[in-house]
Fold this protein.
Amino acid sequence: MGFAITTFIAIFLLIVSGGLILFYREAMIQRVAQVVTPRPKQAGIRDTLQHTGSALGGVVQQFERVVPRSEADISVIQQRLIRAGYRKESAVNYFYGAKVLCPILLCGVAFTSGIGAWSPFFSYLVALGLGFLLPDFWLGNRIAARQAAIRRGLPDMLDLLVICIEAGLSLDQATSRSAEELTGAHPDICDELQLVVLEQRAGCPRADAWKHFADRSNVESVRNLVSVLAQSEKFGTSIAKTLRVHSDTLRTQRRQKVEEQAAKTTVKLVFPLVFFIFPSLFLVTLGPAAIVIMENFSKYFSH
């Protein structure tokens, strides 16, 4: 079994090496030419890192062709990547390439660590399945983290919008100004605001641009904000007053959510108490008595 696995890994490495030579022949020729006839000006560390990153990205893009996919799957994955903040077209190729590389890497880890020798079929099957699902788990974690960051920075953004509007700026100018000022504190929501500003400059209506923001982020608070702005624009009410009330509502909801989580801690503490603390207390309090009882029983019944 070990000889077969070693042979498989050796053949796989030979195929990968051949693919690298086939796809990057021109790059290798250029590097050999640079070594043979070195230029007076050498590339810096940043150029070297960029070249290495582009080469690794090319390798990942070659692996992504192995995974079968449809247009519907690509659309769903692209939408999830946009919600995670990755808008480049190559992000889909990187994602599918990672779904091929991760199972191979986990199988290599299982082989080198000796876990595969314990139960080869089960170990490598788990490694393949976990490696295939690992990019999905990572992407879901990134989406949740970005949505939490947008939800956390939304009240501050609304406060700054109110300040800018009351200072005499229009809503579009206030949005642009807020995106510039909050870049360091809330980069995720500022990134989305900059896209809203760019869409409006390109001729997209304000309501559609904010609706696209809600679709990209998929956050309920942003959807409520978009509906509030649409209603305020439709009925002609004060935008500054509307945004201030909405900001206070979001902070109240955040406070209530924290209080709700704090109230749930008493129920959540039952499981660690039952499974970890109570057995330790029973062992400390009843252990010596049990030892004495066992010694007395052994002394009486030994005669």
User: Anything to note?
Assistant: Residues 147-265 form a domain with the Receptor-associated Protein fold (CATH 1.20.81).
